[in-house]
Each structure stands twice: as structure tokens, then as C-alpha cells.
Automatic annotation (TrEMBL):
Record field: transmembrane: 9-30, 137-158, 170-196, 226-249, 284-311, 331-357
Protein name per its UniProtKB record: ABC transporter permease
PANTHER family from the UniProt entry: INNER MEMBRANE ABC TRANSPORTER, INNER MEMBRANE ABC TRANSPORTER PERMEASE PROTEIN YEJB
Domain ABC transmembrane type-1 as annotated: residue spans: 135-350
Single Gene Ontology BP annotation: microcin transport
Region annotation Disordered: where it falls in the sequence: 53-74
Family: Belongs to the binding-protein-dependent transport system permease family.
Length: 368
């Protein structure tokens, strides 16, 4: 097992390199980079990102009397006509675009290996501090939605397999399909209208993970306040999160229940509970565990993006989305690097769980 783990860790290196290389190459062709953001601000077309930069970067070159329109000349940036080429050069140097793309890419990799992600272009704060600041929100959503979906899906899937074809199986399948078909963001808006001071009840808060007086509450009060703020976002996410896992669990159990070893176990007089959880469970759950890494990463990041936006939960999903719009490349690449690394390690953990549930599986005898 040790050799297998080592091989998997070594394979992470080219995988991570490929992810970063492809993403970096795509970014080179994306219009509206950080230099263009500042140029747009200077020409009266800027957005929030340029506003933040102009408020935090000051003179952009150490000269408070510098006039960006001090010269004419052509530029490779759209909208830069009439701006001094020296000013454009200062912008390029500030953002690191004065170096060739290949040199910038390998410099980025070298820094990321040491977990040095630099500073945000537009927020005047280190990227690592920014990510750590947003981490609690995403961790809360990701862990809770994964736990809740599996706590609902596995028992429900087993029950549906045992009652296959019954009225229970039919009406629960209908509920699951309807829940899966409703977009999480649409259901979140409905919850806000009904329960968060929209048109009916004002029972739950609209924004944040905790209340303003959180530090003044007792331990029990803090727990209740935390759960109070998470109630609506988690409800919106859970509605569709458990559908796939439930049906996967049911089908996996049905396949195992029909096998000969189950018939033999029943013929020996074993109880149904012993057959299901002593024999069927560990075999049927292998395919469910295989989907855990994707479910966790999705819930941790992409799955909660719109929910974070709707409920004003300032987490990593929302941070990554805004960074892409702002062309804040250090934040974009740092998010990509961290979540790619997490995904690779979670996939490895998933394989190790295989061997824990079914000791007959031996990855040492497989070709990687």
C-alpha cells in the first residue's frame, strides 16, 4: 500500500502541472486583463476592480505627479490610445506582464510549490490571507452539505432497494426527481421570499454566517446562531444534492441483493438486517464511496457559488467568481491550485477507503 500511495502522490505532480499549464495558456488569450481594467478606469469605462486598484495602488509607479496622458503613441491594449507608453510600461511591470509568459508561468509554479501566492491585484492584501479569510464559510457549507446529503441518501437508498417497486419506492422517487429538477438557486430565492422577510415570515437572517453580536453570545448561543444562519442555505443545497447519491445507493444495493451469495446467506437463516449490513453493505457502498471526492469538492466550491451570492455568504466560491470577473489572476490561480490539490488528495483518500471497507481490494497488485 505504501508503494501505491507514493506512486499516486508522484502522479499528482504532472496532473497538477497540466491543470495549471492549460489554465495559464487559456488566460493569455482572455481579453480584459488587469492592465485593461486600469486603462478602462482611466478612460471612464472602469468597473469595481479598477476602482479598488486606483484606491489602493496610489501612483502605480512611485510618482504622484505622473500624468498618464502625457504622451501619444500606439499600444497593444485596446482603449490605450493617447496614454503615455511609459505609463503602460509601469502598469505592465506592476502586474508582472513585463516578463515573457513562459517565465511568468514557471515563476508562478515555483512560488506555488512554496505556497507563496503573492498579493491580490485589486485588494491590497496577500492572496493567502484572503483565502483564509473566506475559508470558514466554504468549509461550513461544504462539510455540512456533504454530511447531510450522505446521511439522507444512504438510508433512503437502502430503504428504496429493500422496498423496490412498492408505493414507498414510487412516491419517494417522485419527490427525488422533482427536488433534483428544481435549481438550488431558484429554491433559495423561494426560501428567502417565504422565510427571510420577503412576503411572509421573517424567521431567518439574509446574510452572513453569524450575527453581529456573535462574540457576546454564550457557547450554546453561538452554536444556535451559527445553525440559524446556515438553515436556509443548507436547505436550498440539500434539495438536489442527495438525489444522485440516493439513486446510486439504491441501484448498487439492488445489484448486490440479486447475487448468489445473498441468496445463500438467506438460506442459512440469517436475518435480513444481518444480510444487508453484514454482507451487502460493504460491497454495495464501494461505488457510492467512489463518488465522494467529486461530491465533496463540488459542494465545497462550485456547488455553493450561487448560494453564497444569494445569501451574501462571502466564501471561496464567490471569491473565485468575482476574481475571474475582475481578472485578479493571483486569486484565480491560487484558488485553482488549492482546489486541484485538494481534489487529488481527496481522490487518494477515497481509494484508501476502498481498502478499509473491503480488505479484499489490494491496489498493490494493480497497474497504476
Amino acid at each position: 500500500m505504501g508503494a501505491y500511495i507514493l506512486r499516486r502522490i508522484l502522479l499528482m505532480i504532472p496532473t497538477l502541472f497540466g491543470i495549471m499549464a492549460i489554465s495559464f495558456a487559456v488566460i493569455q488569450f482572455a481579453p480584459g486583463g488587469p492592465v485593461e481594467q486600469v486603462i478602462a478606469k482611466l478612460t471612464g469605462q472602469g468597473g469595481d476592480a479598477a476602482d479598488r486598484l486606483s484606491g489602493s495602488s496610489g501612483d502605480l509607479g512611485g510618482n504622484s505627479n505622473f500624468d498618464p496622458a502625457g504622451g501619444e503613441g500606439s499600444s497593444k491594449y485596446r482603449g490605450a490610445q493617447g496614454l503615455d507608453p511609459e505609463f503602460i510600461a509601469k502598469l505592465e511591470k506592476q502586474f508582472g506582464f513585463d516578463k515573457p509568459p513562459l517565465e511568468r508561468f514557471f515563476m508562478m509554479l515555483w512560488n506555488y510549490i512554496r505556497f507563496d501566492f503573492g498579493e491580490s491585484y485589486f485588494r491590497d492584501v496577500s492572496v493567502l490571507d484572503l483565502i483564509l479569510e473566506k475559508m470558514p464559510v466554504s468549509i461550513s457549507l461544504g462539510i455540512w452539505i456533504t454530511l447531510l446529503s450522505y446521511m439522507i441518501s444512504i438510508p433512503l437508498g437502502i430503504r428504496k432497494a429493500v422496498k423496490d417497486g412498492s408505493s414507498f419506492d414510487i412516491w419517494t422517487s417522485g419527490i427525488i426527481i422533482i427536488g433534483y429538477a428544481i435549481p438550488a438557486f431558484l429554491f433559495a430565492i423561494l426560501l428567502m421570499v417565504v422565510f427571510a422577510g420577503g412576503s411572509f415570515f421573517d424567521w431567518f437572517p439574509l446574510r452572513g454566517l453569524t450575527s453581529e453580536n456573535f462574540d457576546q453570545l454564550s457557547l450554546g448561543g453561538k452554536v444556535l446562531d451559527y445553525l440559524w444562519h446556515l438553515a436556509l442555505p443548507l436547505t436550498a443545497l440539500v434539495l438536489s444534492a442527495f438525489a444522485t447519491t440516493t439513486l446510486l445507493t439504491k441501484n448498487s444495493f439492488l445489484d448486490e441483493i440479486r447475487k448468489q451469495y445473498v441468496v445463500t446467506a438467506r438460506a442459512k437463516g440469517l436475518s435480513e438486517h444481518r444480510v444487508l449490513y453484514g454482507h451487502v453493505f460493504r460491497n454495495a457502498m464501494l461505488i457510492v464511496i467512489a463518488g465522494f471526492p467529486g461530491a465533496f469538492i463540488s459542494a465545497f466550491f462550485t456547488g455553493s457559488l450561487l448560494i453564497e451570492n444569494i445569501f451574501s455568504l462571502d466564501g471561496l466560491g464567490l471569491l473565485g467568481f468575482r476574481s475571474v470577473l475582475d481578472r485578479d489572476y493571483p486569486v484565480v490561480f491560487a484558488n485553482l491550485y488549492i482546489f486541484s490539490l485538494m481534489g487529488l488528495f481527496v481522490a487518494l483518500i477515497s481509494d484508501l477507503l476502498y481498502t478499509w471497507i473491503d480488505p479484499r481490494i489490494d491496489f498493490e497488485r494493480r497497474d497504476v
